[in-house]
Amino acid sequence: MSGDREPIGVIGVGWVGLVTAACFAELGHPVVARDILEEKVDSLSRGETTIHEPGLPELLKRNAERLTFTTEMPELLDAARILFVCVDTPPTRSGDADLSRVRSVVEELRAGGDHVLVMKSTVPAGTGHSILRDLPGVPYVSCPEFLKEGSAVEDFLHPDRVVVGAEAGDEAAGDAVARLYEPLGGEIVRTDVASAEMIKLASNAFLATKISFVNEIANVCEEVGADVAEVARGMGLDQRIGSAFLRPGIGYGGSCFPKDVSALKMLAGNSGYHFQLLNAVIEVNELQKRRVVGKLQKHLGSLLGKRVALLGLAFKPQTDDMREASSLVLAARLEGEGAEVVAYDPVAGGVARELLDTVDHRDSALEALDGADAAILVTEWPEFADLDWAAAAERMARPLLIDGRNFLDPAMLRNAGFEYEGIGRAIETPVQAEPTS
User: Which end of the chain is more exposed for a tag (fewer CB within 10 A), N or C?
Assistant: First the structure.
């Protein structure tokens, strides 16, 4: 299991798996990636990227000769000894992680073979020990991913840290995985399997907690007339706190935070511990998505028959991921209040059309704003900063904008003729002239 160009197998070529495969190929390793979806494998074999991720198409094209995509597990097992499991572990109705795809992989490996099984998928603490019981003698390593959608290639190639968890007796397997990451320069954290699993869940839960905390601070700022942007800036300069994830908005979403926070909460509950803090984090996040509707009602009164434009639908910019996106909740709530919802997203429009089939989807921001009684900026796509907002104001029935990400310059919007309201920012009101004597 040594050598500069270790053959690598990747099981599951969703977002994490495809980035992992492409980046290891970029490092010079021959990679065989397997997925059960024949259509996806065919597309990737033709060089067609199946997800939107900056930098990924270039990696796939540049390393095409080192990348092989297949639906056949035997082809993967013959080609590589180090196997990275990158299958999805979505939440079940109970909030627990669905490990059915992981178990399916384990079943296929029961026949044995000289392979190292590396768990890249996010799984509850204790999963590794369960797999070790099912696959005695198979070296097992927990190596959780810490990739952010929209910057996943950069995150992989320039990691803060790489966590490698292995049990006593599997040190050689841990060494082999660590060697793969050594050229990237990030600190390699060597630990046991359960601790590695917990590092991933605890990290995401803490980041989600920071988001919910600053959103609560933003809500208080609105009540007392403070500006949360200034509050967060002052907080973030404290090195013990830091500025990352102190941007208020309409809640977190995506494939990681909601799932991992829920999974950690359920893991604690199943172990007999009531994780009260995470209950609050989840509740705040859900309520935050709905506060925007209240802001609209404050300005417009009843939303019945009102036309509301959603600018951005993906859960964050630079991705087409709609999982747990705030736009899904907003659209449903607005339609529940009788509003007509029109929307635009520069990248996620195709995916969103299937999920939001009652929404009027448009091909540009200005088209979406045409005749609207209000707009909500949901996703901070860069093109919205460059929009001709004066022209947008003229096209709207009422130039009212709720900036759900505090992304735009309030002064600029107001100069363009908009009523502007952000999250946790004091609302400017016209100054009343002093009475003359």
Answer: C
pLDDT, tens only, 312-365: 999 999 999 999 999 999 999 999 999 999 999 999 988 999 999 999 999 999
Contact 17/35 with Cβ under 8 angstroms? yes
Q: What does the block give as tokens for 288?
A: 């935050």
Q: Looking at the predicted structure, is the pLDDT value of residue 428 above 80?
A: no
| Domain span including residue 333 | 282-421
317 with 375, same domain: the answer is yes
158 and 30 within one domain: yes
Q: Provide the mean pLDDT of the chain.
A: 92
State the residue for tokens 């079943």: 107
Which of 382, 381, 395, 391 shows the shortest CA–CA distance to 413? 391
Question: Distance between CA atoms of 260 and 208, rounded to whole angstroms?
Answer: 9
* Sheet of 307-311, strand order: 360-361, 340-344, 307-311, 374-377, 400-403, 419-421
Is residue 187 scored above 80 in pLDDT?
yes
Q: Which amino acid is at 115?
A: H
Annotated catalytic residues are 256
Please count the residues of the chain.
437
| Distance, CA of 22 to CA of 18 (rounded, Å) | 6
Name the band, by pLDDT with cuts 50, 70 and 90, for residue 433: very low
Q: Are residues 22 and 148 in the same domain?
A: yes
At which residue do the structure tokens 């966590």 appear?
163
pLDDT range class, residue 169, cuts 50, 70, 90: confident
Measured CA to CA, the distance from residue 277 to residue 400 in angstroms comes to 36
Three-class DSSP category at 434: coil
The domain total for the chain is 3
Residue 288 included in any domain? yes
Helix and strand numbers (H, E) in the chain are 18, 14
Is the domain of 286 the same as that of 258?
no
Q: What is the DSSP letter of 166?
A: -
Q: Which helix (H) or strand (E) holds 98?
A: none
Integer Cα distance of 266 and 197 in angstroms? 15
